[in-house]
Every structure is written in C-alpha cells, then in structure tokens.
Amino acid sequence: MPITYNDLYLDIRRELKRAGIGAASLEAREIVCFGSGKTREGLVQDGRLYVSAEVEGRIRELVGRHLSGEPVAYLIGEWEFYGLTLDVSEEVLIPRSDTETLAEEAIGHLRGQGSCRVLDLCAGSGCVGLAIAAHVPEARVLLGELSEKAVRICRQNIRRCQLTGQVSVMVMDALQKPLAAIGEFDAIVCNPPYIPDSEIAYLDPSVRDFEPHLALKGGADGLDFYRSVASEWRAVLKTGGQLFFEVGIGQADAVLRLMRTSGFGDINVTADSRGVARVVYGTLAETI
Length: 288
Known about the structure:
Layout (H helix, E strand, L loop, with lengths): L4 H14 L5 H13 L3 H6 L7 H15 L4 H5 L1 E4 L2 E4 L9 H14 L5 E6 L5 H9 L3 E7 L2 H13 L6 E5 L13 E6 L14 H4 L15 H9 L4 E10 L5 H10 L2 E8 L5 E8 L4
Helix pairs in contact: 1-2, 2-4, 6-7
C-alpha cells in the first residue's frame, strides 16, 4: 500500500523509538532524506507525496542496517558538528555533541586574540579544528592525524567547508615528539583516544564494531595520549599558549594533574551539556 513521506518518517521514528534509540526523530529524518535523495527542506515540502516502492525499499534497508547496529552517520556518509556538515567514514570517529564543548571552549578563548595558529591534534574528521577556523576567521589551523585514511577525510572536509585558505592537514603521531618544522602554536586542541584498552570489548556494539579502534584505544589506563601531548607537544606551544583536552568520564582530575606537572597553570575544567566534566584546559606558564 502506498505511503507518504510524512507517514514513512513517522513509521520509522516509531520503530527507532521502540528500539530504544534516543535520537529517533533526528535519525529517522536523516535516513529518509538520504534514502530518498531529498534535502531536509525537500522532505518537508514533499511530505504529502507518495513514496515509490523502490525508494521505500531502499529506506527500509537502511533502517534495518541501523537497527543491526550500523551508525546513521556511516550509513549516510556525513554528520553535523557545530553548524558544519562533515564527511565521515568508518576511518574516523563520528563527531559527537560532547566534543562541541571542546570546540566551544577553544573558540571562546581564541576570539578577539587576532592572528593565531592552532593545532588540532588527533584530528579525526577535523571537526574541532574546522569549527575553530569557521568561527575564528583570523586563526590558521593545522590538523594533525596519524591515519592516512583519516587525513583524506580531513582534506575532503576542508574543501567541503570552504576553508582551504585557513586549514591544512599533516600526518602526525601524538605519541611521538613533534617535528620542530611545524613551528609554534598559540593553542593546541586535542580529543585523543582515551578508552582504556581493556574496556574496548565492552563498548556499545555501534562503537565497538564500527568505529576505528585506533581512535579509541588510550592505553592501559586511557591516559597515554594525555601524557605524551602534555609533556612532549608543549615544545611547539608558545609560552602563554593554551592546551585544550577533551577527556572521558572520570578522567578530568588525572588529566589536570598531568598538565600541572608538565608546566601548565590556570587549569580549568568545563562540563558538557549533561554535566560531565568534559574539557580540561590550561596555559603554558613556564619552561621545565
């Protein structure tokens, strides 16, 4: 029996809600838009039109894959972050609203500072660095990422966001010392892998089975990258420059202590929208 786009969207939303998916409305809309080739505006305009059997079948197939665990962002190949629509693939973590707290904190501190250089280390899709560039026009941002496949996604997103004049990308290993040739930065932002290795097996299947483990595994205690970045990458941070970390649940105090012993002062902790301590940042105060 023919079904309209509105009714199909509502039907899928109910199905996702029954499956316990919290963002059922958003995900149902994104699946219907992608499966039908419509924009969000087009979906609203065509809501009362009937869906062809071919399009409905394609959309139902996407729903089935999602209910089997595949994240919507990977199904449709893009996701939104801080007002930007970014390409994503299984080579990079899906940008999350929690990480917008990191971008927002850095943007708030960099605005009004004039010309500045920013390094987004462990950049993944480039979401944090690109958000900074989009909202701080005087910033020049370098995305650093170990995975060459992720670097390709970064390049795609630089072009997609029309930020080629502000943003570049390089292969970098945050667990190694930085090359002096990259110069100095006024700020470093970093959302590193921070899941303890032993906990990977217990993650939600949508994360464990689809998202890249290279971007998740943070060592035995989840703090390997924080140790390396705070102690080694401070060498390319100007005195008075700021280091911004995203942290996992329960990690803020440990990261704060690591930063303090690495010569950072005026250290602050910011909670995300759920009240979880999510960002730790401080100022490089001295040479040690």
